[in-house]
């Protein structure tokens, strides 16, 4: 049985999903220090050059090589600018199930990039890799992330109470940890039927073009 995902790139009409490289480090540092990324992820804060280089050189490649998942930098097709990241993790080869997480840079929000990149990844995962389930877990207060799940046709399956540590800004300009519920969403192959066409009609973008 195959235990790792192939090293690939996935292209859509507007985006390229590819492995991170060292040229991404400055933009990645800026993205990871955004206040919404700080609030809803467990990434180090402040996010430093050392953190970014460790991510690109060690952590992201190890997700694939160790069989846990795969990590993609999401870039604009025309400008090659880094607009976010998307990753699979907690992959279970026996049940053909995995979890997806995504981050969008502040300068790229409102363009539908998160939805487009997760859709492309889901189509590749279901059609080419034979997977049967993708799970998303969105913090209860992160409405933007929940909207991505809804646009993709994910089904809300329940709430994990008090299940994640998030962060909130303090009056002195710092951050403090808070607990939050997680909404669990499930996406099956049949849930994607017609989704690409609906998104294309609504936002001018569609399904993947190619992967290699």
From TrEMBL:
Keywords: Transferase. GO terms for cellular component: cytoplasm. PROSITE patterns: GNAT. Coiled coil: none annotated. Gene3D superfamilies: 3.40.630.30. It comes from Streptomyces sp. gb1(2016). This is N-acetyltransferase. Residues 15-177 form the N-acetyltransferase domain. It holds the Pfam family Acetyltransf_3.
């Amino acid at each position: 049985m195959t235990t790792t995902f192939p090293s690939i790139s996935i292209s859509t009409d507007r985006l390229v999903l590819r492995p991170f490289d060292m040229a991404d480090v400055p933009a990645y540092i800026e993205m990871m220090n955004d206040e919404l990324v700080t609030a809803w992820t467990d990434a180090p804060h402040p996010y430093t050059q050392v953190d970014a280089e460790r991510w690109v050189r060690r952590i992201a490649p190890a997700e694939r090589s160790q069989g846990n998942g795969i990590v993609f930098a999401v870039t604009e097709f025309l400008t090659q600018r880094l607009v976010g990241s998307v990753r699979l993790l907690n992959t279970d080869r026996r049940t053909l199930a995995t979890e997806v997480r995504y981050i969008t840079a502040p300068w790229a929000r409102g363009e539908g990039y998160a939805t487009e990149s997760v859709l492309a990844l889901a189509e590749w995962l279901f059609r080419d890799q034979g997977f049967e389930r993708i799970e998303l877990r969105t913090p209860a207060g992160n409405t933007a992330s929940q909207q991505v799940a809804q646009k993709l046709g994910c089904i809300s399956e329940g709430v994990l109470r008090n299940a994640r540590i998030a962060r909130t800004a303090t009056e002195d300009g710092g951050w403090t940890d808070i607990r939050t519920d997680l909404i669990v969403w499930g996406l099956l192959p049949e849930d994607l039927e017609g989704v690409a066409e609906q998104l294309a009609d609504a936002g001018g973008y569609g399904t993947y073009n190619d992967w290699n």
